[in-house]
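Lay summary. Proteins are chains of building blocks that fold into shapes, and those shapes determine what they do. In this project we predict the shape from the chain. Here is one chain we studied, written as its sequence of building blocks.
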Amino acid sequence: MDTYAIPIVNGVLPRPDGGVLQGVFLDSFFANMLVKTGVGNDIFLFPLSSDDKSLYPVGVLVRIEDMWVDKVPQGSDATALFARVIGRERCKARKFSLSNEGLFALDIEKIDIYELRSLGYPII
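And here is the predicted shape, written in a compact code that computers can read:
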């Protein structure tokens, strides 16, 4: 499966078993990807590490529950896209592809962190 992918700067991802997360998307590149995907569809969220030059391939496949445009907090007149997503499952992307249309996670597969943990891999 291939889908749009959005790096999350603060690293906070929803729990994969139905955890809900709400956030604001200030960058129009990623906000446009969210809008193109649409409410009710899936998108891949993954943590962004400022220390690493490569993209971390493990994240959470989420379903977009709602989107709206609203004023950015702190008294500004600026607006941004807000979204609420619900976690579905932990996944790993085999690779990423960047184009003018967006960032894509390619060949997404479900992963079992409990199995990985039993094999000795560190799990955050």
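What the prediction tells us: The mean pLDDT is 88.
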